[in-house]
Amino acid sequence: MNSAKMSFVASPRLEMELKAIPDTEYYRDIPEFLEDAVKTLMDVRRDLRIAIACTLYEKGKISLGRAMEIVDVDIERMKEILVERGIELRRGADTVEEMEEELKGLEI
Fold first, then answer.
1. Looking at the domain assignment, is residue 4 inside a domain?
2. Per the structure, how many domains does the chain have?
3. If you ran DSSP here, which 8-state letter would residue 91 be given?
4. From 60's CA, which of 8, 21, 23, 24 has a CA 20 to 30 Å away?
5. Which residue has the higher pLDDT, 104 or 15?
6. What is the rounded CA–CA span in Å between residue 69 and residue 85?
7. Containing structural domain, residue 65
8. Pair 87, 58: CB distance under 8 Å
9. Same domain, 36 and 50
């Protein structure tokens, strides 16, 4: 799995709490904790998963299949969700060159 380095500004209280995470022995380090925290939030906030999948699909960053995986629905329901949000469904590439371009765009 590819990893990306990200940074953010935390309040002093949050910074203090995050720095204590490794000492609790629940998590190896802060990144492991943050990954679990985001996964947990995404499990609870279905609306957020839908919004993320739709945004990434609309920007051409993911395929319809990947959007379905993120939202955990079948293809017909994912199409309905996109249409309900006014997002145009993409059709397949017409040429090999277009297909190669689409594949490049799917790399995150």
1. no
2. 2
3. P
4. 8
5. 15
6. 18
7. 46-105
8. yes
9. no
Whether 5 is covered by a domain: the verdict is no
**40 and 53 share a domain?**
no
Structure tokens at 73: 């629905």
Q: Which long-range contacts (CB under 8 A, 24 or more apart) does 79-85 make?
A: 81/50, 81/54, 82/54, 82/57, 82/58, 85/54
Whether the CB-CB separation of 41 and 48 falls below 8 Å is answered with: yes
Q: Are 54 and 70 in contact (CB under 8 A)?
A: no
Question: The whole model's pTM is what?
Answer: 0.71
Query: Of 6-15, 86-95, 96-105, which range is least confident?
Result: 96-105
Please state whether 72 falls in left (phi above 0), alpha (psi between -120 and 50) or beta: left
* Structure token pair of residue 6: 């990200």
User: Mean per-residue pLDDT for 73-83?
Assistant: 96
